[in-house]
């Protein structure tokens, strides 16, 4: 690989973003994109296995940019990229940006199917009423004017007024206020409003802000930092009203799609932790700008904030290296609640604004799971409640007022569209709903951005702006479940090749068969590997749930709540058909939206909830699935649809399940039990690897 003559620091332009920069010869294109803030998906952490980081080189003389771009200016395909192309295929002109290295000036096109900025983000707050007892009190007082015969300082007379009118004793003041007190009191003609911060269990009350005269506005932030999305609510501390909500993609995605990829990035790059901390803090600051603009609120009026996130997001937001969370014993740097000034992490709100982070439950069960627990309250119920937050690392909570247990389970990114041949994140144009006729095996589907089904008049016109671009998580769950219900796949997940005689949608794919969901360009096909990826993901989640049920000595759950933005789009029926969750009355399975954000809002508006969740987390029993010997057994059984050994009588009463059909790996009917067992055991080992 020799660079073009006289090229030492090639100029690279990324389109359509227009971002450009110079990089040393040999720099991987993906690294250049990350340094410029160009968002390109990378699920595998740069190992050339996921195929999500595809780019195209634009050839020609781009005079406007003074760049001559050529395929000769990028390294030839290496062994990893050739292996990926041989196994999974690469469209013409596409390259894997994690493997391709810069040799000369380049214009790089980032195809829209690899850009993640446009993903659909659920950000609205729920409408629950929360009893207010905030950590912030706004106290208006009238202060005695100075008197030569009473030589008390202005600050001392302010303290006396606050004690007299509000019963506040032994007050402390933030130091930054001391130089401002005299000017504020005189500007207010000896009246002022003090913002008092006091935790529920603290004897210390502290003045954190001071205004001349009457101040009747005070706001707080409730923010859920997810590995994929960040959601924020701006809330009035005086009324409890949500003044504004906003959400954005987590920019850390450019460093790694899943949590372990980000930990690996930190381990392999000396500046990795700092880069991801800066990225998430800048994203949070950008959301503050958005909610302030929407709510017509000044940053200086924000006095309190509550943040939640999984352990790795929690650590990176606080500037803590998450490396220890990458392997056993998964040690947290801090597990208890964190109380700091917002300015300690560079968050520009009111100068005295506070920041509270809920406690983490365990090394893989974070403050977001604690917030979900606070929101849904299994510890307040008699029923056995299961809470599932489906993500790259699913968090599971099971319990009632007697006992609560929690675990995480390594589902991977398949439910978010990664590892799926036609998969993508939820964005306009993505298939989100699927139905398959059991007689004809013909599909119909709905896409994000259109209310019409694909077989309805006007559908083509309704998706003209976006097209049909791929299939997102909810669509993947439904298409696999529908393929099972219509007999296209067996309970072992094998595509029945004999059905190719009935339908042209069953097509050979090497030694296996695939199902064509959508013809045309792009052609969307559900392959045998796609089915396997979903089986692995759902088996990991179910196995984690099964472990918790055993710890609770129960063979059933009374109620199931899907938490998280993705959970809001999951149809409970199809989740149960797939075997993602255990058997339960379907009318007792519900999506609760961003319950982590709701829990954060509860902790913001009522300091008693902070005490409650801290006490609850201290009692929650943490189960580490990686150390449980029965996890693999449950995993193997859960590879089947819906499960090899667990009955689903309540589901069977509501949905007509197909008769059992055992297939061999190549899609031929027959007894494949010995081979199936070997395959499932290999899958179990991969799921725990």
TrEMBL record:
Residues 663-689 are annotated as: Disordered. InterPro entries: 2Fe-2S_ferredoxin-like_sf, 2Fe-2S_ferredoxin-type, Beta-grasp_dom_sf, Corrinoid_activation_enz, Raco-like_middle, Raco-like_middle_sf, RACo_C, RACo_linker. CDD domains: fer2 (cd00207). One of its GO terms (molecular function) is iron-sulfur cluster binding. Residues 10-114 form the 2Fe-2S ferredoxin-type domain. Coiled coil: none annotated. Signal peptide: none annotated. Residues 678-689 have a biased composition (Basic and acidic residues). Pfam families: Fer2, RACo_C_ter, RACo_linker, Raco_middle. This is Electron transfer protein. It comes from Mesorhizobium plurifarium. The lineage of its organism: Bacteria, Pseudomonadati, Pseudomonadota, Alphaproteobacteria, Hyphomicrobiales.
């Amino acid at each position: 690989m020799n660079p073009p003559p006289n090229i030492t620091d090639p100029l690279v332009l990324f389109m359509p973003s227009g971002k450009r920069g110079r990089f040393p010869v040999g720099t991987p294109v993906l690294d250049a994109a990350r340094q410029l803030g160009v968002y390109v998906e990378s699920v595998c952490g740069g190992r050339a296995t996921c195929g999500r980081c595809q780019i195209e080189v634009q050839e020609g003389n781009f005079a406007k940019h003074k760049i001559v771009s050529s395929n000769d200016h990028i390294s030839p395909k290496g062994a990893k990229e050739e292996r990926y192309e041989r196994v999974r295929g690469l469209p013409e002109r596409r390259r894997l940006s994690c493997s391709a290295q810069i040799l000369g000036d380049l214009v790089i096109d980032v195809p829209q199917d690899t850009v993640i900025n446009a993903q659909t983000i659920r950000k609205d707050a729920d409408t629950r009423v929360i009893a207010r007892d905030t950590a912030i009190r706004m106290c208006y007082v009238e202060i005695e004017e100075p008197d030569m015969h009473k030589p008390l300082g202005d600050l001392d007379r302010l303290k006396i007024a606050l004690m007299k009118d509000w019963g506040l004793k032994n007050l402390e003041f933030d130091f930054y206020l001391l130089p401002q007190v005299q000017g504020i009191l005189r500007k207010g003609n000896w009246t002022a409003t003090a913002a008092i911060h006091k935790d529920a269990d603290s004897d210390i009350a502290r003045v954190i802000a001071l205004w001349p005269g009457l101040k009747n506005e005070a706001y707080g932030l409730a923010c859920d930092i997810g590995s994929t999305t960040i959601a924020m609510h701006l809330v009035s501390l005086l009324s409890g009203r949500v003044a504004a909500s906003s959400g954005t993609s987590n920019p850390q995605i450019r460093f790694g799609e899943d949590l372990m990829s980000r930990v690996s990035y930190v381990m392999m790059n000396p500046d990795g932790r700092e880069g991801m901390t800066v990225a998430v803090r800048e994203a949070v600051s950008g959301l503050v700008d958005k909610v302030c603009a929407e709510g017509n609120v000044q940053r200086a009026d924000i006095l309190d904030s509550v943040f939640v996130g999984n352990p790795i997001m929690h650590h990176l937001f606080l500037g803590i290296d998450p490396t220890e969370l990458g392997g056993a014993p998964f040690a947290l740097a801090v597990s208890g609640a964190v109380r700091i000034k917002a300015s300690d992490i560079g968050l520009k709100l009111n100068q005295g604004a506070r920041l509270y982070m809920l406690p983490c439950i365990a090394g893989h069960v974070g403050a977001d799971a604690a917030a979900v627990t606070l929101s849904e309250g299994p510890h307040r119920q008699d029923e056995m409640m299961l809470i599932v937050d489906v993500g790259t690392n699913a968090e599971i909570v099971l319990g009632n007022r007697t006992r609560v247990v929690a675990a995480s389970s390594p589902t991977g990114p398949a439910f978010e569209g990664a590892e799926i041949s036609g998969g993508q994140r939820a964005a306009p144009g993505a298939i989100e709903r699927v139905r398959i006729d059991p007689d004809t095996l013909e599909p119909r589907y709905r896409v994000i951005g259109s209310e019409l089904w694909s077989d309805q008049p006007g559908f083509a016109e309704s998706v003209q702006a976006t097209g049909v671009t791929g299939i997102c998580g909810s669509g993947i769950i439904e298409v696999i479940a529908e393929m099972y219900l219509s007999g296209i796949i067996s309970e072992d997940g094998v595509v029945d090749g004999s059905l190719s005689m009935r339908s042209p949608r069953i097509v050979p794919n090497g030694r296996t068969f695939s199902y064509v969901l959508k013809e045309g360009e792009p052609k969307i096909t559900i392959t045998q590997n796609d089915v396997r990826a979903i089986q692995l993901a759902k088996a990991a989640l179910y196995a984690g749930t099964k472990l918790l049920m055993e710890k609770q000595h129960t063979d059933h759950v009374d109620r199931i709540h899907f938490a998280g933005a993705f959970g809001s789009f999951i149809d409970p029926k199809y989740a149960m058909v797939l075997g993602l969750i255990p058997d339960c009355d379907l009318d007792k399975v519900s999506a609760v939206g961003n319950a982590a954000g709701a829990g954060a809002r509860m902790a913001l508006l009522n300091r008693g909830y902070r005490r409650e969740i801290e006490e609850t987390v201290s009692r929650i029993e943490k189960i580490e699935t990686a150390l449980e010997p029965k996890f693999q057994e449950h995993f193997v059984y859960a590879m089947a649809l819906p499960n090899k050994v667990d009955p689903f009588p309540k589901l069977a009463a509501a949905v007509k399940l197909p008769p059992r059909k055992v297939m061999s790996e190549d899609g031929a009917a027959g007894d494949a039990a010995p081979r199936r067992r070997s395959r499932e055991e290999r899958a179990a080992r991969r799921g725990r690897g």
